[in-house]
Amino acid sequence: MKAELIKTTPKGTNVFAIENDFGMRAELLSYGAIISKLLVKDKSGSLIDVVAGYQEEDEFRQDTCYFNAFIGRVCNRIGGAQFELEGKGYELFKNDGNNHLHGGKQGFDKHEYHAEIVGASSVRFSRISPDGEEGYPGNLIVSVTYTLTNENALEIVYEATSDKTTVCSLTNHAYFNLDGDFESVLDHELYIGASRLTNIDDELIPHGDILDVKGTPHDFTSPKRIGRDIKADDRLLKIARGYDFNFVLDSNDLQEVKAWARSAKSGVRLDVYTDRPCIQLYTGNFLDGVKGKKTYGYQSAFCLETQGYPNAVNVPSFDSIVLKAGNHYHAKTKYVFSVRE
């Protein structure tokens, strides 16, 4: 197992590599705390890169897809780009129609981080998000730590504290294709341990309604191909042009697999463990020929973003994402890779 700084770019971004004893390897950028490569073995023993992205740092700086980046101060959407906290209203940047998405105009994916090797195969990225940044209150000291284990797990630990009461909900926006070719994910098999999802309006904003997935195209409690029902006559699928929905997990036990995906072609299986209450399934519905390591077309990748409830700050019935002054935010997600014939 090892972690090393492999280069520093002309713009000052540090590029790290972490590797386990079995050849699994991730490359990480201090810009955006981005996972730029994730190499796993397929059923032939060959290493394949299963995350989307770019070859060059400058391309990541111009990225609008949030490829594999650290997302905050609040991931997903805040309806109307506003909220009230402790009797005070806050206005946020509208970067998704009338709404606020993934931290705003310059979210956590668009910042340089202090980076340090903190273990045999671990790197931590940290910064202070100042009071008022993107409209949010409080100086937020935030970090994300990536670790590769010999169980072929990429562990992600998020931590934060604030000197004022604020809101905080962090994730990583990894785009996966378990074939490594980024042609299509519609033949990937998928399971999500969620019998409910949050209903949305026509702008993809949830307002508190929870839908049962049984008997709908959104039921992944029995594994099925991602593409099996993706073109069904369904209001939500038509709004999002595919899957882009928040699934409410049935269990909060970190030791239980919350979701898994598998490619029959490569044999690679991805198991997702998390202590977050929700997972956003996104099937790359707005990829439209983005040029990077590959040319990424419509539904050529999928995301399983572990998260708090979207728009929770405006929906009292959702689990709160409020972080009280002086309290400690801690969240953990593991992406575990294996080969299943």
Number of helical stretches of at least 4 residues: 2
Gross morphology is globular
Largest sheet: 9 strands, antiparallel
Question: Which strand-content bin applies to the residues?
Answer: 35-45%
Could you say how many structural domains there are in total?
A: 1
Explain the overall architecture.
The chain is 3% helix and 40% strand. The protein has two helices and 29 strands. The protein starts with a strand and ends with a strand. It has a nine-stranded antiparallel sheet, with no helix packed on it. The model has no long low-confidence stretch (mean pLDDT 97). The chain has a single domain, classed as Distorted Sandwich (Beta-galactosidase, Chain A, domain 5), CATH 2.70.98. The protein has 341 residues and is mainly β.
Give a summary of the structure in a few sentences.
The chain is mainly beta. The protein has helices at residues 57-61, 235-240, and strands at residues 2-8, 14-19, 25-29, 34-41, 47-49, 70-71, 77-78, 82-85, 88-91, 100-101, 114-119, 122-129, 140-148, 153-162, 166-167, 171-172, 189-192, 196-198, 210-212, 224-225, 244-248, 259-262, 268-274, 278-282, 290-291, 295-296, 303-307, 322-323, 329-339.
Give short descriptive properties of this protein.
2 helices, 341 residues, nine-stranded antiparallel beta sheet, 3% helix, 40% strand, mainly beta, Beta-galactosidase, Chain A, domain 5
How are the secondary structure elements laid out?
Blueprint: E1 2-8, E2 14-19, E3 25-29, E4 34-41, E5 47-49, H1 57-61, E6 70-71, E7 77-78, E8 82-85, E9 88-91, E10 100-101, E11 114-119, E12 122-129, E13 140-148, E14 153-162, E15 166-167, E16 171-172, E17 189-192, E18 196-198, E19 210-212, E20 224-225, H2 235-240, E21 244-248, E22 259-262, E23 268-274, E24 278-282, E25 290-291, E26 295-296, E27 303-307, E28 322-323, E29 329-339
Antiparallel strand pairs: 1-2, 2-3, 3-4, 4-5, 6-16, 7-10, 8-9, 11-12, 12-13, 13-14, 14-29, 15-28, 17-20, 17-22, 18-19, 18-21, 21-24, 22-23, 23-29, 24-27, 25-26
